Amino acid sequence: MLPRRVAWQIILGAYDILKEEETLVNVEIPAGETIDVIGDTHGQYYDFMNLLSLTGKPSPTHTLLFNGDFVDRGSWSTEIMLVLFAYKWLHPTKIFLNRGNHETCEFSDLSFQIYLRKLTMAPLSRIRSGYEQSVRIRGRDEEEIL
């Protein structure tokens, strides 16, 4: 179990980074680096962890873009948000979080509403530019190469 103090440090660390990001962020992927786009995990922690095992974790040469709908149907929304916020805090230029339509304050759990308030600092969309290379998009049921 993660101590509450550590969870708050993660949330506030990510908040400090997210509040400085623009609403629309241009993410450039230099030659030799990769980006994976992951979306629609809907609180399914084991699916989320499986996707991370397929894509790899963020690193100096690997960027992850989480394209919304991190939470909702599954039982592990808080855990997923903590992992995402921890990655954002540790790798601020190698992980990007887009809000989806499920990241709203309609959730009743108070601690989760606090996460969502912090997540409102996340951009609404991203632009990839600069280099002609493929972007892998991974979802629960498919992979598409753009």
Task: Provide structural commentary.
The chain has 146 residues and is of the alpha/beta class. The chain has a single domain, classed as 4-Layer Sandwich (Purple Acid Phosphatase, chain A, domain 2), CATH 3.60.21.10. It is 34% helix and 21% strand. The protein has four helices and seven strands, in the order αββαβαβαβββ. The strands form two sheets. A five-stranded mixed β-sheet has the order 4-3-2-6-7, with helices on one face. It has a two-stranded parallel sheet with strand order 1-5. Helix 3 links the parallel strand 3 and strand 4. The protein is globular. It starts with a helix and ends with a strand.
